[in-house]
Design goal:
The structure holds two protein chains of two kinds. Chain A contains three helices and five strands. By secondary structure, chain A is an alpha+beta fold. The radius of gyration of chain A is 12 Å and the shape is globular. In chain B, the strands form two sheets. Chain B has a four-stranded mixed β-sheet, with helices on both faces. A four-stranded antiparallel β-sheet of chain B has the order 5-3-7-8, with no helix packed on it. In chain B, α2 runs antiparallel to α3 and α3 crosses α4. Classes of the chains: A alpha+beta, B alpha+beta. At the A-B interface, loops of A face α2, α3 and β7 of B.
Chain lengths: ~80, ~150
């Protein structure tokens, strides 16, 4: 399954790209599993996702927890806790 | 009137107040957040999502308008680079009476801190650059709007 992923803040800096399209492997079904897969994929992913509890996610603009399924998602955004205001 | 803006240009606070002044509303409450320069800050940069930041602000504005009887609501957030003293965010809520305007204003700034896709990066006069970390109390302040306060 192809999935667009957008990164923000220090997650973006550590990944070295603002967004990418990945082919999600079979067996990677939810946000938490995808983060673990990115962390294991390469050194940049390992750096960005070393502390998965610090990562927040939104699927098509809606904040989601690590158990949220990826099926049907168009864009997954991965980022640290927001700090606006 | 619900007016939601995400902009890289300066927030014209006086002009936004004028819009509420002209509306004949009984009460208006406001919150203005500004860049603090008291710790050697040279520049604050606000990163945003090209679509979801404005959508998130819009969702909050409509949630406030559904919850309280508001006659006008303005929610403007600055993005990009700004200097100490500049306005980052303006919340302006008008209603017939003070209670609803005050509650809506506080709800909006509390929830904006945890729900909207914005990230602050600080650049200091000594050359350091650091992403701002979330504050301990922000989540609990946002969560108390889930239940007990009408």
């Amino acid at each position: 399954m192809a999935l667009n992923i957008a990164y923000f803040s220090w997650v973006r800096e550590r990944m070295g790209v603002a967004d990418e399209t990945v082919d999600v492997p079979a067996g990677v079904g939810d946000v938490g599993a995808l983060i673990a897969w990115l962390a294991a994929r390469d050194a940049r992913g390992a750096l960005a996702f070393a502390e998965p509890q610090r990562i927040r996610a939104a699927i098509d603009g809606v904040m989601m927890g690590p158990d949220a399924p990826l099926s049907g998602a168009r864009e997954l955004a991965l980022f640290p806790p927001v700090t606006g205001g | 009137m619900i007016r939601v803006l995400v902009q890289s240009s300066a927030i014209e606070v006086a002009a936004e107040f004028d819009l509420h002044d002209a509306g004949g509303h009984g009460a208006s409450a406001s919150f203005i957040g500004r860049v603090r320069g008291d710790h050697g800050l040279a520049e604050l940069f606000l990163e945003h999502h090209p679509v979801m930041t404005e959508a998130g602000l819009g969702n909050l504005a409509h949630a406030a308008a559904d919850r309280w009887k508001l006659s006008a609501l303005t929610l403007i957030h600055r993005i990009g680079a700004m200097a100490p003293g500049e306005t980052i965010v303006l919340v302006l809520a008008s209603s017939a009476h003070r209670a609803e305007a005050l509650a809506a204003c506080e709800f909006l700034i509390d929830r904006l801190k945890t729900d909207v896709m914005l990230w602050k990066r600080e650049s200091f006069t000594d050359g350091r650059v650091a992403w701002v970390e979330e504050r301990e109390g922000d989540q609990s302040r946002a969560e108390r709007w889930e239940s007990d306060i009408p």
